[in-house]
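Reopening: structure tokens for the ISE complex, inputs below.
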Amino acid sequence: MTLRVGVIGTGMIGQDHIRRLTKVLSGVTVTGVSDIDATRAASVAPAGAQVFATAQDLIGSDSVDGVVICSWGPSHEDQLLACIAAGKPVFCEKPLVTSQAAALKVMAAEVAFGRRLVQVGFMRRFDADYRRLKAVIDAGTLGAPLMYKSVHRNASVPEGLYTSEMPLNDTLVHDADISRWLLGEEVAGVEVRVPRRSSRGGDLRDPVVVLLTMRSGAIVDVEISVNVAYGYDIRGEVSCETGIAALPNRPATVITDQFGIRQAIPEDWRERFIEAYDQEFREWIAAAGQGTATGPSTWDGYAATLVADAALRAVETGGSEPVSMCEKPSIYFS
Ligand code: NAD
Ligand code: ISE
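Re-run output (same inputs, fresh job):
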């Protein structure tokens, strides 16, 4: 069976996902697109796909079995609620939503529906290096994980569009999610330190250092720098009781010339996580074909939202902000 998919939001990542859904993956076809910028939607619509005037029209269409949401974060809540009301499986780019209240609303709707429909775009969980790192920690041969260092560097971010809140409520969500997944536990508290500001970002609060205290007492230290110029640099290292487990440097051709010996660094997330995005969609397509979802859930999106909210509070108070979660509904135990 071929899954017929509608894509909402046809900007940077929407276009990249349309490319993989049409040119890379099998068992799927893009039958619809929609964007508040109708000209953009029309210009990137694959052959045969209908351009819908609104996201709601796309979600309600009989020619769409599953929905991919790639619009801006604040639009996700209404679009997710409409997908759940229509009983359609939905892949939603991170952040799930932008407030705790919205996350609880989406969770309540999915729980009332009775089974999972939502997969959140935390693609690191599908990356082969992160999967191998988790396997080492889970095997327990290095003892308990005590500390995790997560480095998240972007070459640059869109000037004017990327604001000082975004390292904490847009970028940090990936580190929050991967920390919870790798360490297998929830975040209990969040602190933020703001070092000397990079002159490259104007008034932007960049870089930031975030400390996540996990429920076991393990501490995660996250560096977020969004204007490092040299490339997209993602690192992770877990310190356990009797050893260290770290992500490898990505293999790249070694170039030797008059400038020295060097290896290229990915330009951005599209390049670094290209296989991970492919794999997250393979798994989404398989589950959506069965009318459900697997992988990162609404619960995981909710958890990351709480960490982002706590980080935004912590940067104001300068202290440690607690994270307290509601009881986990049974549909999110796998
Ligand atoms: P973008 O600005 O390039 O594209 C967003 C598009 O959504 C725009 O074309 C905009 O017109 C459209 N849009 C906004 N509101 C809409 C609405 N209500 N209905 C329909 N269309 C709407 O942004 P982007 O970089 O492609 O990011 C989109 C989403 O993907 C964001 O949530 C972002 O956080 C996420 N993202 C995730 C990753 C990742 O690594 N997983 C990487 C980049 C972006
Ligand atoms: C972007 O939206 C992403 O999700 C990227 O993976 C992240 O590195 C970047 O900081 C975000 O703005």
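Residues 124-272+305-322 form a domain with the Dihydrodipicolinate Reductase; domain 2 fold (CATH 3.30.360.10). The mean pLDDT is 97. Marking as resolved unless the reporter disagrees.
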